[in-house]
Amino acid sequence: PRGAALLPQVVDHYENPRNVGSLDRNSKNVGTGLVGAPACGDVMKLQVEVDEHGKIVDARFKTFGCGSAIASSSLATEWVKGKTVDEALKIKNTDIAKELCLPPVKLHCSMLAEDAIKAALADYKLKQDPNREEAEKKA
Amino acid sequence: SGPSGDGVGAPRPLYMDVQATTPLDPRVLDSMLPYLTAYYGNPHSRTHAYGWESEAAMEKARQQVADLIGADSREIIFTSGATESNNMAIKGVARFYKSRKKHIITTQTEHKCVLDSCRSLEAEGFRVTYLPVKKNGIIDLKELEAAFQPDTSLVSVMTVNNEIGVKQPVGDIGEICRAHKVFFHTDAAQAVGKIPVDVNNMKIDLMSISGHKIYGPKGVGAIYVRRRPRVRLEPLQSGGGQERGLRSGTVPTPLAVGLGAACEVAQQEMEYDHKRVSQLAERLVTNIMSEVPDVVMNGDKEHRYPGCINLSFAYVEGESLLMALKDVALSSGSACTSASLEPSYVLRAIGTDEDLAHSSIRFGIGRFTTEEEVDYTVRKCIQHVRRLREMSPLWEMVQDGVDLKSIKWTQH
């Protein structure tokens, strides 16, 4: 299982980081997803910035986790950029795992990355619909 | 470049994982070579010079091992390594005395082969008490006292822990076991040849020794079995009755010679090595901790072997740090448990929070570690911990004043 840490495509996401950082979580155009738990050794924060046409124009991530977790969330931010919200919701963990050649023991990293995308987009959607927010609060 | 012969490649990583294994000391290799080439006889062959010279070498090695631990050479049995020695000690003693004694005491931080041997004995109908350890990794002697039962046959407590380097009070444990007339076994794989260990001063009845932890060859170890008072054990391996009937099988002379030489060299170098390793360890820990906040050293700061340093770097996951430190050979916890996804059971036993348990790295400093290697490791460690913290949502939250314990995390 340690061999996964040495996969060049995994290491590349750490050594040549793209999209590490934060967007303004208070902005209405930004959706923030925070998934995982420190006790499990995996926490991903993924943020998207969506323009007025519903297209994701920027994305950032921060991850506490192994190399595969970092690579999965990094790849997720690369893939969501340029997609619409609905297109981004179609990104599957299996695609991430295949792209990074993740071994079975690391598949949970790609699953968490898919969760992070969905959480970020759900947060964005919630911000756009104040009525839904009221309904959520009452629920 | 590596043995795959790819020619041009990255230089090999610095080796800072001596608890996993050690390189052969050149003096040990020198001692072994004749027995790997010209003197290839079976030491149990009685009828010709090949056997006699091989036997002589084996017996010399036996004496070298005995001298290191204050034992008689008749009390040293060669094995394939400390795992076999641990199996022999625990299963062998338990089964021999099973008609009257059914209880064993050990600790929660023992090596897997000790814990697994105990588990397999439980399946045979024995009862085992797994003593907890205090936050510093050391057992509570009062709890040990309280754990004895009328039918306890054995206490097994390791001398130095392979993950966190903590030293158990072996002398005191020996005294307590003597008072209760219970045999005391210690897995001394990480201690022998590094700190003084004397089976009589410490009242040890059985001891496991590993060749490849003390700059000797892999595939060989030894078990010390006290003769006075006599410790009996049921052999694990049946056969021609070699090694006093306790461990049948041809003793691999070159390996035994290597183990003996490693013990002799260790005895000579122990004081010098200990001083040097202590200085380097101090250097590593001080330099890292002065530059990086929120670093915890796991295990007692005083009662330890200095060459085994286990640090937790809060808000940074251990495997990612190992990946980042790709030109240093390190590990996060024990090599033999790396197949599972769970964080170390040793860290859990000392009460480490689960997120910190995922953030730990073990640094090993040994006889051949140089100051430059330590300085390089420190530099890279500081650099990459800082970088990984920049990438960490936990670090970001803490910087913003968030109490991580107040967050409701999602489950997957």
UniProtKB/TrEMBL annotation, chain A:
Keywords: Iron, Metal-binding. GO terms for cellular component: mitochondrial [2Fe-2S] assembly complex. One of its GO terms (molecular function) is iron-sulfur cluster binding. InterPro entries: ISCU, NIF_FeS_clus_asmbl_NifU_N. GO terms for biological process: [4Fe-4S] cluster assembly. The keyword Oxidoreductase does not apply. Gene3D superfamilies: 3.90.1010.10. Residues 9-128 form the NIF system FeS cluster assembly NifU N-terminal domain. PANTHER family: IRON-SULFUR CLUSTER ASSEMBLY ENZYME NIFU HOMOLOG. Belongs to the NifU family. This is Iron-sulfur cluster assembly enzyme ISCU. The gene is Iscu.
From TrEMBL, chain B:
Its EC number is 2.8.1.7. The keyword Metal-binding applies. Coiled coil: none annotated. Keywords: Iron, Iron-sulfur, Metal-binding, Molybdenum cofactor biosynthesis, Pyridoxal phosphate, Transferase. It catalyses: L-cysteinyl-[cysteine desulfurase] + L-cysteine = S-sulfanyl-L-cysteinyl-[cysteine desulfurase] + L-alanine. Residues 15-376 form the Aminotransferase class V domain. It comes from the Eukaryota. One of its GO terms (molecular function) is iron-sulfur cluster binding. Gene3D superfamilies: Aspartate Aminotransferase, domain 1, Type I PLP-dependent aspartate aminotransferase-like (Major domain). One of its GO terms (biological process) is [4Fe-4S] cluster assembly. Its cofactor is pyridoxal 5'-phosphate. Pfam families: Aminotran_5. InterPro entries: Aminotrans_V_dom, Aminotrans_V_PyrdxlP_BS, Cys_deSase_IscS, Cysteine_dSase, PyrdxlP-dep_Trfase, PyrdxlP-dep_Trfase_major, PyrdxlP-dep_Trfase_small. GO terms for cellular component: mitochondrial [2Fe-2S] assembly complex; nucleus. Belongs to the class-V pyridoxal-phosphate-dependent aminotransferase family. NifS/IscS subfamily. Homodimer. Component of the mitochondrial core iron-sulfur cluster (ISC) complex composed of NFS1, LYRM4, NDUFAB1, ISCU, FXN, and FDX2; this complex is a heterohexamer containing two copies of each monomer. Component of cyteine desulfurase complex composed of NFS1, LYRM4 and NDUFAB1; this complex contributes to the activation of cysteine desulfurase activity and NFS1 stabilization. Interacts (homodimer form) with ISCU (D-state); each monomer interacts with the C-terminal regions of each NFS1 monomer. Interacts with HSPA9. Interacts (via homodimer form) with FDX2. NCBIfam families: IscS (TIGR02006), PRK02948.1 (NF002806), PRK14012.1 (NF010611). This is Cysteine desulfurase. The lineage of its organism: Eukaryota, Metazoa, Chordata, Craniata, Vertebrata. The gene is Nfs1.
